[in-house]
Structure formats: C-alpha cells, structure tokens
Amino acid sequence: MSITNRQAAYDERSKIKVERFERKLLSSNVTSVSSNNKWLKIFEEIEVQLDRKTTVSLKLLMDDAPFEAIHLIGSLYEDFYLEGAFGAITYKEIEWVEFFTDITPQFNFEVDIEVKENSFVLYGYRVS
C-alpha cells in the first residue's frame, strides 16, 4: 500500500471516528462538563499537586471500559491532547479520569469531581 493510499485509509477511519463521536455527543444522555481549556487548567493543577507515578484510569466517551493510562501525569504538556504510551487522545474524548491517591487536589475554579476513599474522579462528560 502506498503512502497516499495509507493516508487516504487513515483519513477515512478518522472521519468515521469523528462522525461516531459527534453522534454520541448529540445523544440526549450525554452532558459535557469540561472543555479543552478546563482540562488544560485541571491538568496544570494536577501536575503540580500529584506525584508523576500516580496510578490513573482513563475512560473515553467512545470506549466501553476504562484503561490504565501509564505515565499520564508525566505526559501533560500539550494544549488539547494527552500524549503517551497509550497514543494521542484529545481532551474532548475524555469521559472521566480517576486518580488513585489519598490526596484530593485543590482547584481555583469549578470542576466536576467525585471524591472516593482512595481516589478521585474528574469528569469531562456525565452520561446518564
């Protein structure tokens, strides 16, 4: 397969992914609670307040199950996506992120947070 054909196939898969994502967002059971700018602020605060080795579970809106995001905190250096061992993920894809720590970070702005016994969850979307 030539580079041009590969690029065309990639572009087509990307287009389908975007269309599915947009349909999911338009469904009545999804409410956005964090924008790209808010995620950027959240991650700037997280990076300062938590250890880089904190275990993190990440749930994407389009995925059925969460996954462990290895070295997530150490990868927080981009304005609109996460980069790491798990590949590039735009902030708008994040349904929620759970940080497994006894520390509850403090924010100078409103966040959708759920504090648990040994973790806390930050939400990008609420799905009912």
Low-confidence stretches: none
Helix content: 25-40%
Termini Cα gap: 43 Å
Number of strands: 9
Mean pLDDT: 79
Order of helices and strands: HEHEEEEEEEE
What is the percentage of strand-forming residues? 25-35%
Biggest β-sheet strands, sense, barrel:
5 strands, antiparallel
Rg measurement, Å: 16 Å
Structural class: alpha+beta
Per DSSP, the total helix count is 2
Shape: globular
Number of domains: 1
The side-by-side strand order for the widest beta sheet comes to: 3-2-6-8-7
Briefly characterize the structure.
It contains 2 helices and 9 strands, in the order αβαββββββββ. With 128 residues, it is an alpha+beta fold.
What does this molecule look like?
By secondary structure, the chain is of the alpha+beta class. It has one domain (30-127). It is 30% helix and 25% strand. The model has no long low-confidence stretch (mean pLDDT 79).
List keywords for this structure.
128 residues, alpha+beta, 5-stranded antiparallel β-sheet, two-stranded antiparallel sheet, 2 helices, globular
Helices and strands in order, then pairings?
Blueprint: H1 3-26, E1 30-32, H2 36-49, E2 55-60, E3 67-68, E4 81-82, E5 89-90, E6 94-100, E7 113-115, E8 120-123, E9 125-127
